[in-house]
Write a structure and sequence with these properties.
Helix 4 packs parallel to helix 6 and helix 4 crosses helix 7. The chain is about 80% helix and about 0% strand. With about 180 residues, the protein is an all-alpha fold.
């Protein structure tokens, strides 16, 4: 970032920063914090929901824990684009791209999740691979709603309605808790 700033200042006269530009404006700092802090809290709320879900799964025994661990790694990897899309929505809406990716990821995981699970689980662990496949498939069935939730929540966040975005995250955590208990 520093190298880009130096390059920009040397090459492009119109982009040179003046002393006034380098000063942190209180109004801008408050605005950034009003948007940034709730976005950070949103990720914390989602993480808390995941901890609650993991606690519920831990009561089911080692086989289910191993299956969820393997499935969660695959889920986390395939959900990276959802987080990126959600963050992008703070400035631009792209739910059509998210829907297309959701369908593509679902199709890919439907046919290959058990093979991908072999990256994290020994091939001899047939039951764990089967449970991992179930975890991934059932999770992937909700990729489109997940994309929609991220798109809407981050659009709301980007429009400056931080409280509503946090409330949406709290409701998501409550739903995850309800599903884990159920």
């Amino acid at each position: 970032g520093v190298a880009c700033l130096i390059y920009m200042n040397k090459r492009f006269e119109v982009l040179k920063l003046s002393a006034k530009d380098r000063r942190a404006g209180k109004r801008y700092m408050i605005n950034l914090c009003m948007n940034g802090i709730p976005m950070g809290l949103q990720y914390s709320i989602t993480a808390i929901g995941s901890v609650i879900l993991q606690t519920a799964v831990n009561t089911l025994g080692a086989t289910y824990v191993a299956a969820m661990t393997a499935g969660s790694k695959i889920f986390t990897f395939t959900c990276c684009p959802f987080d990126a899309l959600g963050s992008t929505m703070a400035t631009y809406g792209g739910q059509n791209v998210g829907a297309v990716y959701s369908v593509g990821a679902l199709i890919l995981l439907y046919f290959f999740a058990d093979y991908i699970a072999l990256l994290f689980v020994d091939a001899n662990e047939v039951e764990i691979i089967h449970l991992t496949y179930q975890f991934i498939l059932y999770s992937a069935l909700f990729y489109i709603p997940l994309t929609f939730v991220n798109v809407v929540r981050f659009c709301i966040q980007g429009m400056g309605f931080s409280v509503f975005a946090i409330l949406a995250g709290v409701f998501e955590m409550a739903a995850r808790t309800f599903a884990a208990v159920l």
